[in-house]
Amino acid sequence: MSAEPDFGTPPPGVADAVERPDAPFSATEQLATQPSATEQLATEQPATDGSSAPVQRAAGALVWRRHNGRLLVALIHRQRYDDWSWPKGKLDAGEDWPVAAVREVAEETGLQVRLGSPLPGTTYPIIGPDGLSVVKQVRYWSAVVTGGDGRLRHEVDKVAWLTPEKAARRLSYKHDHRQLAALLQADRERRLRTWPLALVRHSKAVPRKQWSKADWRRPLDERGTRQAATLVPLLGAYAVRRVMTSSATRCILTVKPYARSAKLKTHSTAVLSEEGFQEHPNVVSKLMAAAFKRGHAGAVCTHGPLLPHVLTWLAKTTDPALHGVRAALEAAAKENLEKGEVLVAHVAGTGKSARVVAVERHAPLS
């Protein structure tokens, strides 16, 4: 696998605030400072009437890099509130969480990022602009820079790259410390640097009973076509660079919109087809091992009958210390994915030493 990008020189407009080392940052100490659900958080006023409040969904990321071997994270400053926090923002209507996280980072920092493993989220009550109680629910990911000019165009007037020690002191809200602690723990355990492998079950296709030609030729129906379109920004959030798919038409059409958008070649193979799996079931494991050897951000689109086999294979590659990750993959293998669903496995390392360290699932368009 190629060396981790240094990003030693931030893009124009991005402040590179790097300070001398301080006392070690304690994840345990910071986790102990997490606010209760009703604690007032600086400019965010919590609701206290006890009523059932609407949920305001938001997503963001902890963008990290290394400079001269030192871990740095990006904080944003909003002039309107005079606060320091992680880049984040509200989901647009119909938008998926990871897509919103990448969009918000781009809007607030001018940087394009690739999402890594998910980090702990946070939920807290606030008073909305209309004076009514709102529950804010935020999901976070780790992320690395892939491009952008760093120009600030929205309410953010500063972006600072800080060591974890200085970031912990600079953050304005206690609830933001939990994500930093998780990021540091992942770094210590050598599972911060990952690459994604997205498993995609093909989108909804024309029913078999309504199709008189060869089954492998069945195309997507109208709903499946819409589902395939939603995969474009979702797979883009993980910067997928290699697309592998079953040779069946319904699988090819599922990932073709993303491949076209990202200007990527679609690698189709009968190994991932239902017919190929029935004839040579063990070859799928070799294909997965080859993907682990490459270690490239990739997507694999296949069929329901194959997915339990692939998911079980992935479960055996999990980090032994992360029991929940293996349990999630085993559960997915047992219940299978829905048509159009995406499971993203975050992998640390390559080849035989590669380990799945995090898993997330994204439901299909209903």
What is the CATH architecture term of the largest domain? 3-Layer(aba) Sandwich
- What is the number of domains? 2
What is the overall pLDDT average?
Answer: 88
Biggest β-sheet: count, sense, barrel? 7 strands, mixed
CATH class of the largest domain: Alpha Beta
Explain how this protein is built.
- With 366 residues, the chain is of the alpha/beta class.
- The chain is built from ten helices and 13 strands.
- The chain has two domains: 27-188, Nucleoside Triphosphate Pyrophosphohydrolase; 195-362, Rossmann fold (3-Layer(aba) Sandwich), CATH 3.40.50.
- 29% of the residues lie in helices and 28% in strands.
- The longest helix is centred in the middle third of the chain and has 16 residues, at 222-237.
- The strands form two sheets. Strands 1, 2, 3, 4, 5, 6 and 7 form a seven-stranded mixed β-sheet that branches.
- The radius of gyration is 22 Å and the shape is globular.
- The chain has helices at 27-31, 97-109, 164-170, 177-188, 222-237, 249-262, 274-279, 283-294, 307-315, 323-335, and strands spanning 55-67, 70-78, 83-85, 88-90, 111-127, 133-148, 156-162, 195-201, 242-246, 266-269, 298-302, 342-348, 355-362.
- The model is unreliable at 1-51 (pLDDT under 50).
- Strand 2 and strand 3 form a beta hairpin.
- 42% of the residues are buried.
